[in-house]
């Protein structure tokens, strides 16, 4: 049987898996798929028996279900769900011995996160409320002003941040549903841990509330009785730290963090905090890796990533992004590390089994969308339990991308992948597709859009130029203050390498496109070379001067990444693609979300007008009700329209 090519609309047929939790012989997990009729995403809870592989669906109410946990006493499956008239996320409980799920909380503004107490009798959770009600009567119908006094006042995907909220941590008794307020705060905080005896909490907070320009975060010890709190990371005055996991005996705490030596791009390390001696020690100093998952793709939904977990009282498991894949290491309190798992795949989520010798994982590869299995930590083997899209791929063809290394600027080793067209032809077009970030990485993960482009007859060049993650601290920090130079050379040399290795590519039909940093670089490229037939710039940056004051992270990003601020307007202008727009001749399509606060739409508008001024063929397409992540988690119908626009532009040129 001849297999069919993958279409963009196949997204509605495919499922992604995430958030596995283990209870005895069963694994509970989330299954997510786009819903075409409702133009949204639906997530469902399933369980699977590890022996029989029998699956069962749980918690049918609601369209968004997340944060699966098993109560410490083994009585309940808990999760957050919007299964209520107000569509607010509430804590739901489902008895594991049978019975329907029910809402434990009924918060007007919903619940953002929750934790079980050690005995399983209560839950601590986060919510918020308005400090004062809106004016009554007709005034509610009138528009009102927004008063802003904070440096950080908006967030991509959320809009303007409310200024009049009271953030709360509450405790609710499972049996009686009696609720108590444990902590209230004017600023957003994050509940990270509840002590076994509930005498203290660990809370994530800003590094320095008194100085909003002092970027970073810390973990506070909060004494419930005295209501006093103290930072656990004062010995490292700069940087960002967050909770990882507490030891069973509560004598040693694992944190994820960095000392901000290289600002935003300082590699995340595992730190140990001795709860008795109050000392903080970096435990992975010898590992030149990023302890997190920073791989980019467009398929996975509702995944949280593998966290740092204790294997026993002395050793712990940690993930790391290395060379386009997620590795697993074993670390210990003395600072030693051992590589446990290193295969060409993307471990997207996971949870240790009770014996700590295995891990329930969801994972992806270049040709596998999302699968559920059990990873044996000793052998590194994965027993496949469930392949949700198996039938689809019996009928549809995928391309196995080719991984390669080449020499970039300064003779550095650069990694890349080439996705050849599904149908082999003596002459075919190709696209240099530049990822965002730039502190992320392409890798061994299923990328739906790239497969659809291959099915449409295009080769796709995916490169990890310097500035990306997964290749060590020097590599990721190498473009600080110097965007658009050696990273540009890496991309040009990589394109040349692929064209030389694949003479079947029609060199007169090579295109360039990218989003976010990839959009910046696309804008930069058309101002510095005419080697590409046409360009597509998505959620881009064109002017660092205006970006500084309009992006939700602009001031921090520009100062830390470009090492300049508004006192050096000339320096920012020299690094802005808009300066070189007058050199551009390449036809360019600009696509931007109207509610993008990360790279505001004015960035695309400025470049669009510049292209018009230069009489370069150009088009601007904007997307309503969409933020920076349109291509990954935007409204499904707009994801379709976005891709149709890409194909139309490519075919036109």
Q: What is the second-level CATH architecture of the domain at 412-652?
A: 3-Layer(aba) Sandwich
Structural class, please? Answer: alpha+beta
Strand content: 35-45%
Helix content: 10-25%
Largest sheet: 8 strands, mixed
Rg result: 25 Å
Structure description:
The radius of gyration is 25 Å and the shape is globular. The strands form 8 sheets. Strands 15, 16, 17, 18, 19, 20, 21 and 22 form an 8-stranded mixed β-sheet that branches. Strands 31-32-34-33-35-36-37-38 form an 8-stranded mixed β-sheet, sandwiched between helices. Helix 5 (517-526) links the parallel strand 35 (505-515) and strand 36 (535-538). The longest helix has 17 residues, at 636-652. It has a domain at 412-652: Alpha/Beta hydrolase fold, catalytic domain (Rossmann fold), CATH 3.40.50. The chain contains 11 helices and 38 strands. Helix content is 15%, strand content 36%.
Give the tags.
alpha+beta, eight-stranded mixed beta sheet, Rossmann fold, 15% helix, 11 helices, 38 strands, 653 residues
Detail the topology: elements first, then pairings.
Blueprint: E1 16-23, E2 26-35, E3 40-49, E4 55-58, E5 65-70, E6 76-81, E7 90-95, E8 102-103, E9 113-116, E10 122-130, E11 154-155, E12 159-160, E13 165-173, E14 179-185, E15 190-194, E16 200-206, E17 216-223, E18 229-231, E19 239-246, E20 252-258, E21 269-274, E22 279-282, E23 309-310, E24 315-322, E25 325-332, E26 337-341, E27 346-352, E28 358-364, E29 371-376, E30 382-386, H1 390-395, E31 402-407, E32 413-419, E33 428-434, H2 448-455, E34 459-464, H3 473-477, H4 486-501, E35 505-515, H5 517-526, E36 535-538, H6 544-550, H7 554-562, H8 569-574, E37 588-593, H9 602-613, E38 618-623, H10 630-633, H11 636-652
Helix pairs in contact: 6-7
């Amino acid at each position: 049987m001849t297999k069919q090519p993958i279409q963009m609309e196949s997204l509605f047929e495919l499922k992604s898996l995430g958030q596995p939790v283990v209870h005895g012989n069963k694994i509970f997990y989330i299954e997510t798929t786009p819903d075409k009729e409702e133009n949204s995403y639906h997530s469902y809870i399933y369980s699977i028996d590890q022996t029989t592989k029998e699956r069962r669906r749980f918690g049918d109410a609601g369209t968004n279900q997340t944060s699966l946990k098993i109560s410490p006493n083994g009585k309940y499956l808990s999760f957050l769900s919007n299964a209520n008239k107000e569509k607010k996320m509430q804590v739901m409980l489902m008895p594991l011995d049978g019975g329907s799920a029910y809402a434990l909380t009924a918060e007007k503004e919903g619940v953002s996160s929750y934790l079980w107490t050690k005995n399983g009798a209560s839950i601590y959770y986060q919510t918020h409320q308005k400090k004062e009600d809106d004016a009554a009567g007709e005034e509610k119908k009138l528009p009102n002003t927004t008063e802003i006094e904070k440096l950080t006042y908006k967030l991509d995907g959320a809009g303007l941040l409310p200024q009049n909220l009271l953030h709360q941590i509450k405790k609710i008794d499972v049996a009686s549903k009696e609720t108590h307020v444990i902590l209230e705060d004017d600023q957003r905080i994050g509940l990270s841990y509840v002590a076994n005896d509930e005498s203290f909490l660990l809370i994530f907070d800003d590094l320095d509330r008194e100085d909003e320009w002092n970027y970073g975060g810390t973990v506070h010890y909060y004494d419930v009785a005295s209501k006093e709190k103290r930072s656990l990371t004062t010995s490292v005055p700069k940087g960002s730290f967050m909770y990882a996991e507490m030891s069973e005996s509560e004598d040693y705490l694992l944190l994820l963090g960095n000392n901000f030596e290289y600002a935003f791009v300082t590699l995340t390390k595992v730190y140990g905090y001795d709860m008795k001696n109050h000392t903080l020690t970096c435990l992975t100093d010898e590992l030149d890796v990023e302890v997190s998952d920073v791989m980019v793709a467009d398929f996975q939904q509702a995944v949280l990533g593998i966290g740092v977990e204790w294997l026993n009282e002395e050793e712990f498991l940690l993930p790391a992004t290395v060379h386009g894949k997620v590795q697993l290491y074993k670390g210990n309190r003395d600072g030693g590390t051992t590589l446990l798992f290193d295969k060409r795949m993307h471990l997207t989520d996971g949870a240790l089994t009770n014996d700590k010798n295995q891990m329930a994982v969801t994972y992806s590869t270049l040709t596998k969308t999302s699968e559920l299995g059990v990873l044996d930590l000793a052998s590194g083997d994965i027993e496949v339990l469930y392949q949700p899209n198996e039938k689809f791929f019996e009928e549809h063809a995928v391309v196995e991308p080719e991984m390669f290394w080449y020499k970039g600027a300064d003779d550095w080793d650069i990694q890349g992948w080439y996705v050849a067209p599904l149908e082999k032809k003596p002459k075919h077009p190709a696209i240099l597709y530049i990822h965002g970030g730039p502190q992320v990485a392409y890798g061994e993960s299923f990328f739906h859009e790239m497969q659809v482009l291959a099915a449409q007859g295009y080769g796709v060049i995916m490169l990890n130029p310097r500035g990306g993650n997964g290749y060590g601290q020097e590599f990721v920090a190498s473009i600080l203050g110097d965007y658009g130079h050696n990273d540009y050379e890496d991309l040009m040399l990589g394109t040349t390498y692929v064209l030389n290795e694949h003479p079947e590519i029609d060199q007169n039909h090579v295109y360039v496109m990218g989003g976010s940093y990839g959009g910046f670089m696309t804008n930069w490229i058309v101002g510095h070379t005419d080697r590409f037939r046409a360009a597509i710039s998505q959620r881009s940056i064109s002017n660092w001067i205006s970006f500084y004051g309009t992006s939700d992270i602009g001031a921090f990003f520009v100062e830390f990444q470009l090492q300049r601020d508004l006192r050096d307007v000339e320096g920012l202008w020299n690094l802005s693609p808009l300066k070189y727009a007058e050199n551009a001749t390449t036809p360019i399509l600009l696509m931007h979300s109207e509610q993008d606060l990360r790279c505001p739409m004015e960035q695309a508008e400025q470049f669009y007008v510049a292209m018009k001024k230069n009489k370069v063929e150009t088009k601007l397409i904007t997307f309503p009700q969409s933020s920076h992540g349109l291509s990954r988690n935007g409204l499904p119908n707009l994801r379709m329209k976005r891709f149709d626009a890409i194909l139309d532009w490519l075919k036109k040129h």
